[in-house]
Amino acid sequence: MTYAVDTRAVHAGREDLAELGVHALPLDFSTTYPMHDQVAAGAALGAFADGAASAATPVYQRLHNPTTARFEQALAQLEGTEAAVSFASGMAAITAVLQAACVLTGKKHVVAVRPLYGGTDHLLSIGLLGLSVTWVDQDEVGGAIRPDTGLVVVETPGNPTLSLVDIATVAIQAGDVPLMVDNTFATPVLQNPARLGAAYVVHSGTKYLGGHGDVLGGVVACAEHRAGALRQVRILTGAVLHPLGGYLLHRGLATLPLRVRAAQATAATLAVRLAVHRGISKVHYPGLPGSDPRGLIGRQMRGPGAMIAFETAGDAAAVVAALRLITPAVSLGSVDTLIEHPALLTHRLVDAEGKETGGITPNLLRMSVGLEDPEDLWADLDQALTAARAAVTVAAGSAPLPAAGAVSATSAYAVSGSAPVAA
Ligand SMILES: *Cc1c(COP(=O)(O)O)cnc(C)c1O
């Protein structure tokens, strides 16, 4: 019998706890595992080296950890896949998929649809893994596939503009080439890409899965025949999720459906109000009329989600500087509402062409709606948008003063230079 997602979120990966006589998830920090039978230990090591999910002993934490393995089982149950493989971060998970699907197979060409998370875009663009990439529109994927194409990469809703990709249609175009879908924004509560033909479903667990802004992690949900290579890559690169991270991500799953739906309801309310605010020129939210031309809400996604992007009429950085309640920070999917400026931060390292095709404009802000009261959030947004608009009007009539937020956002970033992309 298959339980509903809310039930699975609470019980998955905990089936044996009553038998063990414990209620909370067991947390195992061991880095090594004693075994007097060295022959059996050697057989276990050999099994892990071959990509096995479990063996008679974990041997060593880089090969296996019972706490992270429980989280993996739970996430696989939420995504409806045979397996899941966890990693130290979302970027480590994406890198492992590229290594397994492209580097190990020698198929070093990737077809990708923009926009993608800035880190993924940058990783593909700079050729760090020796891969070449063809950027296409979602309707052009089929025509871009070559004999040496190892992977098709999409993200939906896309970071940061929330544009939607039709997963089933892209999977058909990809044919035998595996499709990777970054499902971070939708979460398994709203969308299950594997059911629509995706071979790899990737999450930055740092976001909604953890949900409280205190754990960095990533995970790939896939069929068991693909999971083995991902585990082999993880053993060799050492990009393992810490057991405490596995524990926190697993604990976060229990409240994931409630958090996502509550934040989504608030996002829908705010998006409608933002759309008619005078301080805003455009709102990107899949739930607004005209924002889902392919009719994917309902068919592919069970709701429009809790992420909103909008373009301000005036200086976007000044709007962020004027906020008092909403947290001005990168990352998303936390209990508190977070806002950031993609062109300055998360998508700073995306090249000019990528910014153009991805719709990453200078006045774009990305907001991850949290669990605060919607009226408190609206009051904060309204006062900040109004204050920033008033500042523009004043500046237009007198000496132009740079807004405090614009200056600090730029100079703060200059210190870290072109450091790897933030979330
Ligand atoms: C944050 C994010 C990532 C990267 O995840 P990390 O955990 O920061 O490495 C990948 N994809 C999307 C859509 C993200 O938002």
UniProtKB/TrEMBL annotation:
The keyword Cytoplasm does not apply. One of its GO terms (cellular component) is cytoplasm. One of its GO terms (biological process) is transsulfuration. One of its GO terms (molecular function) is methionine gamma-lyase activity. The modification N6-(pyridoxal phosphate)lysine is found at residue 207. It catalyses: L-methionine + H2O = methanethiol + 2-oxobutanoate + NH4(+); L-homocysteine + H2O = 2-oxobutanoate + hydrogen sulfide + NH4(+) + H(+). Its cofactor is pyridoxal 5'-phosphate. Keywords: Pyridoxal phosphate. Its EC number is 4.4.1.2. Pfam families: Cys_Met_Meta_PP. InterPro entries: Cys/Met-Metab_PyrdxlP-dep_enz (IPR000277), PyrdxlP-dep_Trfase (IPR015424), PyrdxlP-dep_Trfase_major (IPR015421), PyrdxlP-dep_Trfase_small (IPR015422). It comes from the Bacteria. Transmembrane segments: none annotated. The keyword Aminoacyl-tRNA synthetase does not apply. Belongs to the trans-sulfuration enzymes family. PANTHER family: CYSTATHIONINE GAMMA-LYASE-RELATED, TRANS-SULFURATION ENZYME FAMILY MEMBER. This is homocysteine desulfhydrase. It comes from Catellatospora bangladeshensis. The lineage of its organism: Bacteria, Bacillati, Actinomycetota, Actinomycetes, Micromonosporales. The gene is metB.
